[in-house]
Amino acid sequence: MNTVKNKKKHVLILGGSSDIGIEVVKNFLKINWNVSAQFNKNKKKLEFLKKKSQNLNLIKFNFSNSKNLYIEKKISKRFNRKYDSIINLIGYVDNKSFENTNLKSILNSLTANAIYPILIEKMLVKKMLKQKWGRILNCSSIGVKFGGGKNSFNYSFSKHCLEFIPSSYKNWAKKNVFINNLRIGVTNTKIHKKMKRKKINIKNRLKLIPINRMAEPKEISNYITNLTTGSNSYMTGQTLTVSGGE
Amino acid sequence: MNTVKNKKKHVLILGGSSDIGIEVVKNFLKINWNVSAQFNKNKKKLEFLKKKSQNLNLIKFNFSNSKNLYIEKKISKRFNRKYDSIINLIGYVDNKSFENTNLKSILNSLTANAIYPILIEKMLVKKMLKQKWGRILNCSSIGVKFGGGKNSFNYSFSKHCLEFIPSSYKNWAKKNVFINNLRIGVTNTKIHKKMKRKKINIKNRLKLIPINRMAEPKEISNYITNLTTGSNSYMTGQTLTVSGGE
Amino acid sequence: MNTVKNKKKHVLILGGSSDIGIEVVKNFLKINWNVSAQFNKNKKKLEFLKKKSQNLNLIKFNFSNSKNLYIEKKISKRFNRKYDSIINLIGYVDNKSFENTNLKSILNSLTANAIYPILIEKMLVKKMLKQKWGRILNCSSIGVKFGGGKNSFNYSFSKHCLEFIPSSYKNWAKKNVFINNLRIGVTNTKIHKKMKRKKINIKNRLKLIPINRMAEPKEISNYITNLTTGSNSYMTGQTLTVSGGE
Amino acid sequence: MNTVKNKKKHVLILGGSSDIGIEVVKNFLKINWNVSAQFNKNKKKLEFLKKKSQNLNLIKFNFSNSKNLYIEKKISKRFNRKYDSIINLIGYVDNKSFENTNLKSILNSLTANAIYPILIEKMLVKKMLKQKWGRILNCSSIGVKFGGGKNSFNYSFSKHCLEFIPSSYKNWAKKNVFINNLRIGVTNTKIHKKMKRKKINIKNRLKLIPINRMAEPKEISNYITNLTTGSNSYMTGQTLTVSGGE
Hints:
The structure is a homotetramer.
Chain A: E1 10-14, H1 19-30, E2 34-39, H2 44-52, E3 56-60, H3 72-79, E4 85-88, H4 103-131, E5 134-141, H5 153-162, H6 169-174, E6 177-184, H7 190-197, H8 202-207, H9 217-228, E7 239-242
Parallel strand pairs in A: 1-2, 1-4, 2-3, 4-5, 5-6, 6-7
Helix pairs in contact in A: 1-9, 3-4, 4-5
């Protein structure tokens, strides 16, 4: 089915230092792919993994720069090479409600979470089409289903925007290049661990999840890997939800 | 059901000079509302209507200014007053495909078609909540359902973004303030008339519409009026599609 | 747009004695259509209306007969004539949960709420296609969105089934015959009035409705009429939700 | 995450002799589950597999019996035991268009494809809840998205009905019992092979699939296995589509 080539495959993971990102990195190293992981600040865990594997390449890059409107050129410099898969896990979060948002904060979230990833995908999909293999996965959030939480308008709005799949995906499909979205439910990551320690709201939030627990980063990473390797050979243009039944 | 007040109601129509906008203006003048219609260039038809009605107020404003990132303050000056209904028909179109888009052109379409209308609605919804009555309708396009046409990535992407309904809408509902989206099908407007004259593609486009004809601006305007006057008393948070069965 | 004929139009209302049905009957009498209203037991209100109007015709028919699997022929006798619009408001309710349902009770709800209405529509749509005008509306329930309530599996399941729109609707559209679904929210009808008197659950149920009140049958009937008369000239194949924001 | 028990797991595959069913059987035998496969006529391939594995158990049962309304009791006799996963691949197909269907043929398709599987799941889910582990997958068809093909109204209607997920799934989730739907695209099975040989329509059908080829039963079986084993640990209540981008 897939014209699998013998050479090593290479995945680009945007947001690679997030808790889920780290697990995705591990998954791909385990199946012997080359991995390029973008990060901004939290490089600790990634550097630990790098020590153990020559296949891991780290890319420091700040998408949520306040001057991010001028970094288009930098992007093409830093990310323009052949990749087999792209996974977008960028999750820039501010705490703006709809009532308190403004132009600048909307644009900050939007460029970091949606527009820059889309521009990177636009640039790299051309190479995927040439090599006749590619898997793109944009990770959004279960919040999109409900219009976002009270204090996460900008985040949810930008993740909603990210979910747009351009009609070109039909042409890409012919060349074995697939694109999908994954709506991820509440996951046991730093943010939620902090909430747990502070006992903020986390109990009420958990009540809304039928499965009655948060997802572990590890289990989310498995859905991601399944969708972005050869094990996904016939699904494209879809938005999947892994959210414990929410 | 509705705490209808005796005083005259007032509707703000963004994109009021479009072919559909003109018909919406007429509808509201007919039921004796005050009408404020925003326009940019095509003021002819609006000025003709203004001569016949004291209830029509014209607002010249350019949302798709190349420097539009700095007009947030101007917006609050020009649009900040009490309205009972807001109808967003802004449709800034460029001809960029996904393959040819770039940061600047994405942001141009996005701010004009989605972010400025959203910021205006954010500003005005507060007054609606105080007066306990309000109807907001964002008009998007059937293209959103299919990921846009070949050369309308920016337009479809921005219309997709516009369709995000923030969870706050549930609180607004309690105060009789409703928000909905209307996905509009192919309509017999200037753009499509031009295509028709030039015989570009229009036949192929029509084949995709089960009803087998374009909508007339007049009939679309009736759906819009129904959703933004008292005749909509129980529907909020919805995305409706009026597209001849597409 | 519509090839409106001068002769009087005729609507068939299945479930015409329900609280919403009565209001729909009134709406159509007001705009001077002929009305055929099917009922089973509650004929009081319908007979009261009949005294005042020669345009109202009553059809007694029991769809939820325990032997309903053998009434296909009866149906073609009783309902086979020219109609311009068909509105299906049949709502046979038992109190079976998923855990307690069985073959017989599933089939009872399914035939009454979905299969018989579908067979009637199948029979009558041919005449609509000949006369090149027709509007069909199947009314389902907001419960379908959530998999039904605890004790209404059969009802919700059958309403879900009813929402299937066969691809033939695209051919019908060409002949100006439209079909849509309307998901109706909690409405102030006999059932809910009873719950209110007994203070059963109704408060908790209301909490789930953003608008914070039930719909009145009158206001639901207006959405129905708009979708099944000439005022719907370009919408087909859609499922709309009027549910106070749920 | 999962309270995996040491004892061998057991999957029930309804429609186990279909081309996809055979591959699912193979997958589960490979990971050393016990497999019970229901079939009606085509037992050849299943019996071949049975010779090689003691873990495979065959259940002959005809769901599409013309007298199928009376087999409820037989079902509880034949299928009532502990299973860890249930996969419903029953696909009873007749060739009725919407225009030519009738009560009997609707009920035949509906009971075989939807109601009997649902009743079996209802019966078996109780045991899953007790053992605190269970995965249910109902397989429907991409046709449901489009209202079915011209001559497959009964099939598509029944598959649409099957997709109803009762709200009880939220309670099941707490006990680690999940239920999902899989909409399967055009697959290279006997039916389509026959079409291919006869060159009926198959080329036109393929044109509608962005990936530009049918799915192989093997690749569909992998999606199915992923959703019904421990590798699905956080997704429930979803309808997924694996259809080559349709």
